[in-house]
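Please review this pair:
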Amino acid sequence: MAYRNMIAVLALGTLALAPFAQASAVERGMEPSVALLGGVVSPDLSDASSDPAYGVEIGANCQLFQPAAGVLRHHFSVSRYSDDPLRMTSAEVNSHWMFEPNERLSLGFGPGIGYVRAKLDDTTNGLWAAQLGGSLKYQLDQQWFLGLEARYQFTESDRFDGRRADADNMRVMGKVGMQF
């Protein structure tokens, strides 16, 4: 429940900063980036515990649609979590509405879709997912940045070793990346 509160605070804080948004993504171009992720995944499954996770992310500003304030940015990530009895590999596309209160700091929130390959005990299934999250990005210089993201992911249920289960989870990840 604390994770959901954290996402709500990130979303409300982002909305509060909307009036301070700077130039739109169309004016700035795609601004592609790549980042390494590291953090913690906390599955809702009672058999599994919070454990480290890692991954990679590619991001870019949307060139098809931009809101009047802020920047719509898409993040494609692949991450891995493993703690007996659950192993997950998640591929996600998260779109965040980003606001810049100053030239170095960006805050955002938004929805995403994903596909999770989950192995529970001896059964492996592919599960579709939807998520909601928030992010923070701090630009160190023209190229390097640090970030933090939190998101909650809802997955569909499937049969694992004779029982019905899902792989719903909360993820909090730090990131270090390079913007081109």
